[in-house]
Amino acid sequence: MKIVMIGAGYVGLVSGVCFSDFGHQVICVEKDQNKLAKLRAGKVPIFEPGLEMLMERNTREGRLRFSDDLKSSIVDADAIFIAVGTPARRGDGFADLTFVYDTAREIGESLTTDTVIVTKSTVPVGTNREIKRIITACKPKAAFEVVSNPEFLREGSAIEDFMRPDRVVVGVESEAAEAVMRNVYRPLNLRETPLVVTDLETAETIKYAANAFLATKITFINEIADLCEKTGGDVQQVAKGIGLDSRIGGKFLHAGPGYGGSCFPKDTLALVQTGQRYGAPQRIVETVVAVNDARKSDMTRKIIDACGGNVSGKRIAVLGVTFKPNTDDMRDAPSLVIIPELISAGASITACDPEGGAEARKLLAGADWVDDAYSAADGADALVIITEWNAFRGLDLSKVAELLNSPVFVDLRNIYPAEEVVAAGLTLTNVGKGHVKD
Q: Pick the catalytic residue: 18, 263, 307, 352?
């Protein structure tokens, strides 16, 4: 099949590359000339494990190419995917659909053959019907179908998620459109991947509901962590105890500094706004958003308390600034709140991150940057782990204790057992632990 992927951002590039690896002929359309030049040169503009190798192979074998010419690219396409950005709109947090609708207009003005237009971008309920209206207005006699096909990719695990998904969701209005989508995803039949076929509105809602539910699990366990700190419980044991219940499951029950990234913050906000627009308030999700926003500042106070209640004039080593490991994504990362607040409180920051440093330097003015954890710890008054990269999971704690000016060790991801930290001569502050012995 010939597939056109409009937008070579995170979702579009990963999807386009993986579709080409399925054996389809794929053209990724990207208007950003700097990004397009990198892609044509075989360079991946984002950090995603395994993506560069997959892109190189499929480009070399002729199944994948990149273009900035939408009009010529979509000729004879079996499926045209819209995978442009839908950032949270300033002011109300609703999804900004400018890029989606602009793309729909351009498709409508350029469409010459029957095809299926598939929305891969995360969009609120009703967007696909508006896309259909826009294209029809541009070309009233055009024969096309609109499909909703939300993505469920986790940054850092996107290739695996695409190739071995839990499910594929497609919202369609005809059997013909469903048949095209079954052909697009036919390679997954060998793994008997469930294909959930719905109407457009249901597919749109599934995406937001899924992300909001996962964000709720994270926020729930973070509040339980606060309770454990007051009562003497252990949040990790609580998470294990409830996660073994098959009705709950253990995923997304890891207490920490709150969720961030490209999906959960904007998708929860968009769902809240959608609920208000339709007169169906999403009160649980509203609370999740508020609690998660406050969570990041709570972590700043935790760090300051660990430093004796005052960080003025102190140097703090920060390990990890991306919102999660195995990505260079800084969007809504907890570090973007924690580090500026520490600097405002008078601290100086020395930070390191395996992949996020380049972007973080633009966003975290005032922080100093080093290449490894031990350089960050050298001469610091406290060490703080914000992101649980593998590079920070096996530190020589005795060496860390020797390098630090004072033995303050703040583990916001609960990587290290208390006994190991204490045995190294460090004073541990973690999340959701009521009993940490000196």
A: 263
